[in-house]
Amino acid sequence: MVLDTLILLGGLALVVFGADWLVEGASSIARKAGLSEFLIGMTIVGIGTSMPELVVSLTGALKGNADIAIGNVVGSNIFNVFLILGVTALISPIAITASNKRRDIPLNILATVLLISFGMQHTLFGLGSSDTINAMEGGIFLLLFAAYMFYSFKTGKREAEDDSSEASPKASDRLLVAILMVIAGLAGLIFGGDFFVDAACRIARAAGLSDKFVAITILAGGTSMPELVTCVVAAAKKKGALALGNILGSNISNILLILGASALACPLSFANMKTADLGVITLSSVMLLVSAWTGRNNRIGRMDATSYLLIFAAYMAYLIMTI
Predict the structure, then answer these.
(1) What are residue 92's phi and psi, to 5 degrees?
(2) CATH class assigned to 37-164+210-321
(3) Is the dihedral of CA 65, 66, 69, 73 positive or negative?
(4) Taking a C-beta distance cutoff of 8 angstroms, is the pair 293, 101 a contact?
(5) C-beta separation of 217 from 17 below 8 A
(6) Quick check: 74 and 281 in contact, CB under 8 A?
(7) CB–CB of 170/246 below 8 Å?
(8) Helices 51-62 and 66-78: crossing angle, nearest 10°?
(9) Residue from 201, 243, 204, 205 nearest 226 by CA
(10) How far is it, in rounded angstroms, from Cα 64 to Cα 199?
């Protein structure tokens, strides 16, 4: 137990340092390439910080454990919005752009609706013989992900012209240094997150907790730690666009890329997903749209952040009471 605790703390330290390097390097790349910080956050940072989820979910799928694969993604997306954006917006309100409202947030909702529709097709529509995401549906997820990345990069340079983000004076102006910072930051996040998750899982399993509970809480929280630290660091550096891009990119990647790849490896059963779990992940995607259209000055403000954290606390309490 003492060794696992030390490993857990060491992993946390790697994640913290990795996040700082990643934010600085990604911001510098955005300026050099003429891309918006949001786009860099959604692609390089968002996908990069989703690598722990990819490893955990794909490994779970290959081992035939759908509870790990599905629970990790559902839990991670809930953590990302209600906990991570909640904490981030408390530190510094996050601006929401017109393209976020028109394209990115609706796609996050669409991906969530597709996840539930594919996973619960028998229960909801009477189609198929079981509630699973099969290889064909996984392929659809991957095609949608590729199309979204292509469109985002195609429009990224134009949107960068309207980006109001200020460059950090400490960020490196040399592209090679910036790329090395991103690589080192991602390595710190991925390896640090892996150490943290492994240690946390050993502690949880020793306590006799179920695979689903471990996946949707400890694993999801652990694999979301790179996003949490990256967003907090970005908020502290007044880079809200990068933080929002990180969360939207991570959530979309979790469903379309990670579950798409996992479903190709092995059909993913939704048998142990509860209505409450799917309801909360749906709410997490819809709440962003609500904040976009009703928040003061098109932003996720501190009132929004407080409501996010209260919902997260209520959901965690529900999970603990239903162990």
Answers:
(1) -155, 120
(2) mainly alpha
(3) negative
(4) yes
(5) no
(6) yes
(7) no
(8) 160
(9) 243
(10) 22
d(CA 217, CA 55): 17
Interval 203-245: pLDDT, tens: 666 777 666 676 677 667 776 777 787 788 888 878 778 788 8
Q: Which amino acid is at 156?
A: G
Q: Round to whole Å and give the CA distance between 202 and 183.
A: 29
pTM of the model: 0.77
How far apart, in whole angstroms, are the C-alpha atoms of residue 178 and residue 158?
22
List, for residues 123-147, the tens digit of each pLDDT value. 666 666 578 888 999 999 999 999 9
Secondary structure (DSSP) of 186-253: HHHHHHHHHHHHHHHHHHHHHTT--HHHIIIIIIHHHHTHHHHHHHHHHHHTT-HHHHHHHHHHHHHI
Residue type at 14 in one-letter notation? L
DSSP letter assigned to residue 50: T
Half-sphere exposure of 76 (CA within 13 A, CB side): 37
Question: What are the Cα distances from residue 145, in Å, to 64, 68, 148, 167, 240?
Answer: 24, 22, 5, 29, 24
Decide: residue 191, CB within 10 A, 0-12 exposed, 13-18 middle, 19+ buried. Answer: middle
CB 25 within 8 A of CB 185: yes
Q: What is the pLDDT of residues 10-55, one digit of tens each?
A: 776 776 677 677 767 776 776 677 777 788 777 777 777 676 677 6
**Identity of the residue numbered 301:** G
Which H or E element spans position 73?
Answer: helix 66-78
What is the spatial distance between Cα 97 and Cα 319, in angstroms, rounded to a whole number? 34
